[in-house]
Structures are given as C-alpha cells and as structure tokens.
Design brief:
single chain, 2 domains, 50% helix
Length: 199
C-alpha cells in the first residue's frame, strides 16, 4: 500500500459523515450515532439552563455520574452501595434521581406544582421522552425541560451535600430552590419564553 500524490492544491477534508466540510451539527450527529447505538435518544441540550447543567444531563443520559453503584462497577472499594439519601436501595442513577423515597417526594411536589397528575417515569430517559411529546405552544415543552433539569440538578446537589458537606442543604428547601432555579433560568436565560410567578 503506497501513498498516491495528485496534482493540485492541498486541502483538509472532513470525512466522518461523507461531506467535505466540517460542521458542528455533523459532528454532533456522528457522536450521537456512536454513543447511542441501539437507541434513538439524542443528546439533550437546553439553552435555557447553564452549560454545567446540560453537561450534567448528558452524563445522566449516559449513566456516567459517580453513583456508588457505578463506582463499585469500576472497581472502587466503597463501604456501601446503598443510597446516601434514603439508605434503602442500591444507589443507581435512576434510584438516586427518581426512585429513592427522597427523590419520589421531591418529584411528587414538583408534579403538584406543575398540575401533573400522573407519574412520568422512573428514569431520565423516560422523563425526557415524555417532554418530547409535549406541545411546543406557550413554551410548555421548554418549561417542563427546565423544571425537570432543575429537579434532577437539585436532587443530585442534595445527594452530594449529604455525602460531602455534612448535609448542609436542607430537605425542606429543595422544592423551593427548584422553583427559584426554574423561574430564574426561564426568565433570564431565554428571551422567547415569558414567565411570571403565576405560570
């Protein structure tokens, strides 16, 4: 096998997607196709939340957060793989964010606040799929995405507070903080979405 040189100008070509020009959208399609084989779930990127929350959501979708179960699967020796917030179930990502007693109580309060009468799901993917089915009128889908991301974010922060900060974050403040975060992100990070405290 040899290298064949051709006459003409040198150029750099992007060959991952068959197109000659590089694009961020093409790169994202390639990453999604590579990382989500067997799944039609793409990445969730919501401009109404901070970048660190989007990265957090991406890591949740890939099950790449350092839960006790994930750490033990990677060979780390841990005293216990039980959930630090409830002490009952094995701390998988779905358990920590949706299925633990603490997470269920937070989600119940959020559903009540949003006038949602049904259980949406017990995983981030189920919740994300539910959001995708919502109508886009009145920014309902965007609002629910932001509220859900704020909920997962605050549940994870509370979990970390229990583990690393002697539980300085109070359980009683979680739902209030989720409401404040959601309102702040929707009001200040998205000019198209008009929100008020009544909404």
């Amino acid at each position: 096998m040899g290298i064949r040189l051709q006459e003409g100008n040198d150029q750099i070509c992007w060959s991952l997607d068959g197109e000659r020009d590089f694009s961020v959208a093409g790169t994202r399609r390639n990453i999604d196709a590579f990382l989500h084989t067997g799944s039609d779930m793409g990445t969730l990127w919501c401009n109404a939340v901070p970048k660190k929350v989007n990265v957090f959501a991406w890591r949740v979708m890939l099950d790449q957060l350092p839960t006790r179960y994930n750490l033990s699967c990677r060979g780390m020796e841990i005293k216990s793989i039980l959930c630090p917030t409830c002490g009952v179930g094995m701390e998988t990502l779905s358990h920590a964010l949706f299925a633990s007693c603490f997470a269920k109580e937070v989600w119940r309060n959020i559903y009540r606040w949003c006038n949602i009468s049904m259980l949406i799901g017990e995983s981030f993917c189920e919740w994300s799929e539910w959001c995708d089915l919502l109508p886009t009128r009145n920014n309902r889908r965007l609002k629910m995405q932001v509220i859900g991301l704020a909920t997962c974010w605050m549940i994870w922060r509370f979990r970390n507070s229990v583990l690393f900060d002697a539980g300085r974050m109070r359980k009683s403040d979680i739902v209030h903080n989720i409401i404040l975060l959601s309102f702040s992100w929707l009001a200040h990070r998205n000019k198209k979405c008009k929100v008020s405290w009544v909404d």
